[in-house]
Specification:
The protein has about 170 residues and is mainly alpha-helical. It has five helices and two strands. Helices cover about 75% and strands about 5% of the residues.
Length: about 170
């Protein structure tokens, strides 16, 4: 028991000496996810892929809004049964529209997640390359309270991502 405690004590005392030769860098992942040029590419691809369906939904929404206003205007001229039927039909159309809208939002989110997973893979590879080039042993991203500018590799990583984009190693 005494040997175990002594060993733990010695390890704790030697930890700063072991860590002394370790060069640690930092990358602001939030900044990478907002400023990486690949984000523009992702947004453009998503826009291109879903623009037609989004436009159709916008058009349908405008038609539904007009129809709803028309039903309200004309309901005073209709019998109560006709007005109730028109409102009921309108609510059914509105529910169908909301379902389409939710389905599209889900597909967009799924596609965005897939694109961001690929971006994360590329960012990790680029971070590794930057770390190796600058001789860093460890790169951290979250939970950092303070970072000296010399250890912040965020801009270097953004530059590397720009190079990858320019070299068409990202599509």
């Amino acid at each position: 028991m005494k040997k175990s405690l002594m060993l733990v004590f010695l390890l704790l005392l030697s930890a700063p000496v072991l860590a002394e030769g370790v060069k640690v860098g930092f990358v602001n992942s939030q900044q990478i996810l907002t400023q990486a040029p690949q984000i523009e590419d992702i947004n453009q691809r998503l826009q291109d892929r879903f623009a037609e369906r989004k436009k159709a939904l916008d058009s349908e929404q405008a038609e539904l809004q007009s129809e709803g206003e028309e039903i309200e205007r004309n309901s005073v001229l209709m019998t109560e049964d006709k007005a109730n039927k028109a409102r009921k039909d309108f609510v059914a159309k509105l529910q169908q529209f909301k379902a389409k809208e939710q389905k599209l939002a889900g597909e967009i989110q799924s596609s965005r997640s897939q694109e961001l997973r690929e971006l994360k893979r590329i960012v990790n590879q680029a971070a590794k390359e930057v770390a190796e080039a600058k001789k860093f042993d460890l790169i951290v991203t979250e939970g950092v309270v303070y970072v000296d500018d010399e250890l912040d590799l965020t801009e270097d990583l953004l530059d590397k991502l720009k190079q990858l984009r320019a070299a068409k190693k990202w599509n």
